[in-house]
Specification:
The complex is a heterodimer of chains A (about 650) and B (about 250).
Chain A lengths: L2 E2 L12 H8 L5 H4 L3 E5 L3 H13 L2 E5 L17 E2 L11 H11 L6 H21 L24 E2 L5 H19 L2 E4 L2 E9 L2 E9 L5 E5 L2 E4 L20 H8 L4 E2 L4 E7 L22 E5 L17 E2 L1 H5 L9 H13 L11 E4 L1 H7 L1 H19 L8 E10 L2 E2 L12 E3 L17 H21 L12 H20 L5 H15 L6 H21 L11 H25 L23 H4 L1 E6 L8 E6 L14
Parallel strand pairs in A: 1-20, 2-3, 2-10, 3-6, 10-18
Antiparallel strand pairs in A: 4-5, 7-8, 8-9, 11-17, 11-19, 12-16, 13-14, 13-15, 15-16, 19-20
Chain B lengths: L2 E7 L8 E7 L8 H14 L21 E3 L2 E2 L21 E6 L7 E3 L2 E2 L2 H8 L21 H11 L6 H5 L6 H12 L8 H14 L10 H5 L7 H18 L3
Parallel strand pairs in B: 1-5
Antiparallel strand pairs in B: 1-2, 3-4, 3-5, 6-7
Helix pairs in contact in B: 2-6, 3-5, 5-6, 5-8, 6-8
Classes of the chains: A alpha/beta (about 650), B alpha+beta (about 250).
């Protein structure tokens, strides 16, 4: 039986829903706010901005991160920029157009009302960040500058060199520091959430482990906010930080929160190719490079071993410009990634193993001069040189797609509350705004919109009814949660096998990349669903975790995360199998147009798939949220 | 390539540490330094020994988590860059490499190569921000900032907060770190209203954390992965002197 879900979208015309909703939401009086405690798990753009803003409003906030400082959250690595529909360029941009580009970019698999709100609030984010001192790039006149990004025909992306994520994160880290100093926010670094505590059906706390001392702690609160990021590291190799993990959201799933669209994972087209099996991560080369770089491979297979300078203009295939003349090198990520895979599958890929394509700046250098290119992308060229030893001012970069972002996440309603009352989910950790594919420069936008403006306005709607209902951390629900966490850690330490957790993780990653990566098919997914439980059983038979529980134990930390990935991977493949259509980044080989583009099935799949945990070893239960498009017209996505 | 490693092992802050020698073999020159340590840890784990604890996260030089002293240099020999951006092709085959944590009195050792850098957070908490409540910001283009000023602010703001500056400084000074934040915010008109409070409070916090003073050795600039210029320290000193002067005048 398939259940249904109510996203609680407010009534009224699309452009007035958010205003109307705010006008009629419940509020918490300033004197009562300091009596309410809120837990925020994660300190990236979403969690950091939420914790700081809730602190400013006068709530008592506890913010947790596994890093040694909130400033190190992985949002910091975002390079290219942040979108907003300011229309400073007078090139026809508007809130509606940003909304439409985002819905279309997501291949019509996201919720209209949420995406419209995102586009509406994005402008306030630019204002807020400038006020905080974020040094966005400017023209000589002193006005803000913009650049273009994939999937849009307007220039709406604000940026701070190639370090936009860093500057935005430092802005919200500083706002957070101000609240820590004023005593409204308590910061808990190097602390990992290991379970969600539910009391009388409501999320009322978490169980954490201090990673430095190994000590377990219980924290009770009036509401819990998860801002723990995405699960891209399920693939082992990704552009995520080493520590990024699914544990917080997966633990919440096991406590009853629904996991939505887990198979929607974004493969970013421009990353430095894999160079060996010892590799621990993949490095992104910002999408902004596609503003000035041209992507190509040789026309003939035989030429792939030649030096790029020996391949004449006529022997090159600028395949994105050829296939998508109106967007060219700025085609959306899912499309560009698949196109790269396709030419490499044809045997025309370059570099070791033939898994790479050229990103060539020669024309732009000729047009603007080396200095301009250096000013725009200098730090990215430096990074490229460090990793590969090659100078991209002289020879084209070699790039290949890599796992980058996860559109799927915990299911939330319009208020960003999950199906578990009191559990809110923001940023990459939720599923809500990007459908089946996220456009570039939209992750930063979503994280900050959720944290600075949406959550602080929707949380009171729940909190207003919660005064005086915070349970004691000594209550049986907390005791039970702590015991189950302890039992699991002890179990990991007791296996005492022969292999490291990393070696299982790597094996899982290869399997998923092969069967549930850039393209998927029924047979492959069924094979993965057979192999994942075998690998998991092997893990619990043969993993070796040295050291003790009550200690700084990095092996234990990692083993716990890998154990969750080994369960979560199965959910991902189940979802990919159930979604019997192609949509955005989810490309099912069985469903493609005659020219190889994703073919949606709007009749039966214009819906969010949200999964409910039914117990270990039991198949999860599917809930569907039908997507209703009142404003946009569902169309075959075309970037030609 | 093959290497001998001398690695600082220390159970926790209370125990004495020592350098322990390990061998790693068949390392590809394209392996990053931290991946080489991953390989060592994998070997140690299989041999039933406890892996070496070290910090890292983004592994692309931006999060500031990694913090190793390699052959006496903070972040190793390939400047500018964090140690996660260091590749084994920078070393000679057969070389002996000494790996220690960042050595600063204000960064107590947690375990092996991991140190506690929360002192840096406390310096920012003391005043390294612009108080701009969400909701009160004016339209972004109503604040015009000359390109030169914003570029200068960006150069200072690029600091990744790793603490290498203090690790390299013979005085264990965090002046470059504090100078970067003070310069970033005071180069911008938005940072104006809190300019004096900010510098006074941050310098006071730095002293309270027992970081040393600057004696212009420029070691900080030499190891900074974000290429923060030591000239910002001069700016910090100017900002501090003028703020103190005005405070004494009772302004």
């Amino acid at each position: 039986m398939i259940g249904t879900l109510d996203p609680k979208i407010p009534p009224g015309p699309l452009d007035q829903k958010w205003r109307n909703h705010q006008d009629h939401s419940r509020l918490v009086n300033p004197n009562n706010r300091r009596k309410l405690e809120i837990i925020v798990v994660g300190s990236g753009l979403a969690g950091g901005s939420a914790a700081a803003t809730l602190g400013e409003l006068g709530y008592r906030v506890k913010c947790f991160c596994f890093q040694d400082s909130p400033r190190r959250a992985h949002s910091i690595a975002a390079q290219g920029g942040i979108n907003a529909a300011k229309n400073y360029q007078n090139d026809g941009d508007s809130v509606y157009r940003l909304f439409y580009d985002t819905i279309k970019g997501g291949d019509f698999r996201s919720r209209e009302a949420n995406v419209y709100r995102l586009a509406e609030i994005a402008n306030n984010i630019i204002d807020q960040c400038v006020a905080q001192g974020v040094p966005f790039a400017r023209e000589y006149s002193g006005y803000l500058a913009n650049r273009s990004f994939g999937g849009a025909q307007v220039s709406r992306t604000f940026y701070a060199r190639g370090q936009t994520g860093q500057q935005l994160l430092l802005g919200c880290y500083q706002a957070l520091c101000r609240q820590v100093a004023s005593g409204t926010v308590g910061m808990f670094p190097y602390t990992e959430m290991l379970d969600l505590v539910i009391v009388n059906g409501q999320a009322k706390g978490i169980v954490t482990r201090n990673l430095r001392s190994g000590k377990m702690e219980r924290h009770a609160a009036d509401a819990v906010v998860l801002a723990s990021g995405g699960y891209g590291n399920v693939f082992y190799l990704s552009t995520n930080a080493r520590g990024s993990n699914v544990t917080a959201t997966y633990r919440a799933y096991k406590r009853g929160a629904l996991f939505a669209n887990p198979s929607f994972t974004q493969i970013h087209p421009t990353c430095i190719p894999v160079s060996g099996d010892y590799q621990s991560k993949l490095t992104l080369m910002s999408e902004s490079l596609r503003n000035d770089g041209r992507v190509w491979v040789p026309k003939r297979k035989e030429d792939r071993f030649k030096a790029p300078s020996e391949i004449s203009e006529g022997e090159r295939d600028y395949y994105l410009e050829r296939k998508y003349p109106s967007y060219g090198n700025l085609a959306p990520r899912d499309i560009s990634s698949r196109a790269a895979k396709e030419v490499c599958d044809e045997g025309r890929g370059v570099g070791p193993g033939g898994r790479g394509v050229y990103l060539d700046f020669a024309d732009s250098i000729k047009r603007f001069g080396v200095e301009t290119i250096r000013e725009r992308y200098g730090n990215l060229f430096d990074v490229y040189k460090k990793i590969t030893g090659e100078d991209a001012y002289k020879v084209p970069m070699r790039i290949y797609p890599a796992v980058h972002y996860t559109m799927g996440g915990l299911w939330v309603d319009y208020d960003l509350m999950s199906n578990v009352p009191g559990l809110f989910v923001i940023g990459e950790a939720n599923f809500s705004d990007h459908g089946a594919n996220r456009l570039g420069a939209s992750a930063l936008m979503q994280g900050l919109v959720d944290g600075y403006f949406v959550l602080p306005n929707t949380l009171p709607n729940y909190l207003a009814g919660q005064m005086g209902k915070r349970p004691s951390p000594e209550s049986p629900e907390f005791e039970q949660a702590e015991q189950s966490v302890r039992a699991r850690l002890e179990k990991l330490l007791k296996v005492n096998g022969t292999r490291s957790a990393d070696s299982f993780h790597r094996q899982l990653g290869l399997l998923l990349w092969d069967k549930c990566g850039m393209s998927r098919n029924e047979q492959g997914l069924r094979e993965a669903l057979r192999k994942i439980p075998e690998l998991r059983a092997e893990f619990w038979r043969d993993v070796r975790v040295p050291g003790r529980e009550e200690d700084y134990n990095q092996s234990l930390e990692r083993a716990g995360r890998v154990a969750d990935f080994l369960e979560f991977a199965e959910l991902m493949c189940i979802d990919a199998l159930e979604r019997d259509e192609s949509a955005g980044a989810h490309f099912r080989e069985e469903h493609q147009t005659s020219d190889g583009e994703a073919l949606r099935d709007d009749e039966s799949h214009a819906a969010v798939f949200a999964w409910e945990f039914q117990g270990d070893g039991q198949p999860p239960k599917l809930y569907r949220e039908q997507l209703h498009f009142e404003t946009v017209h569902l169309a075959q996505r075309s970037y030609k | 390539m093959n290497f001998w490693l001398r690695i600082w092992r220390q159970r926790d802050a209370k125990f004495r540490g020592k350098l322990v020698k390990y061998e790693v073999r068949d390392i590809s020159p394209d392996t990053s330094f931290l991946e080489m340590l991953d390989i060592l840890n994998e070997n140690l784990l299989r041999a039933g020994e406890e892996p070496v604890a070290f910090d890292s996260d983004c592994r692309e030089g931006i999060c500031g988590t990694c913090s190793l002293t390699v052959n006496g240099e903070a972040h190793g020999p390939d400047h500018p860059g964090a140690v996660c951006e260091l590749y084994m092709r920078k070393f000679r085959d057969g070389e002996t490499i000494t790996i220690e944590p960042f050595r600063v009195g204000s960064f107590p050792i947690v375990k092996d190569l991991v140190v506690d850098r929360s002192a840096l957070d406390r310096i920012v908490q003391a005043g390294g921000f612009i108080s701009a409540r969400a909701g009160s910001a004016p339209e972004a283009n109503s604040i015009l900032i000359p390109k030169h000023d914003v570029d200068l602010a960006m150069e200072a703001a690029a600091c990744i907060g790793c603490g290498a500056c203090a690790a390299a400084c013979p005085n264990g000074s965090a002046m470059l770190f504090a100078a970067a934040k003070v310069s970033h915010l005071s180069s911008l008109p938005q940072g104006g209203p809190e300019r004096e409070r900010r510098v006074l409070k941050m310098v006071r916090a730095m002293d309270a954390e027992k970081f040393g003073n600057c004696t212009n050795t420029y070691e900080c600039e030499a190891v900074c992965p974000a290429k923060i210029s030591a000239s910002f320290i001069a700016k910090l000193n100017r900002e501090y002197a003028s703020a103190q002067f005005r405070q004494r005048l009772g302004e």
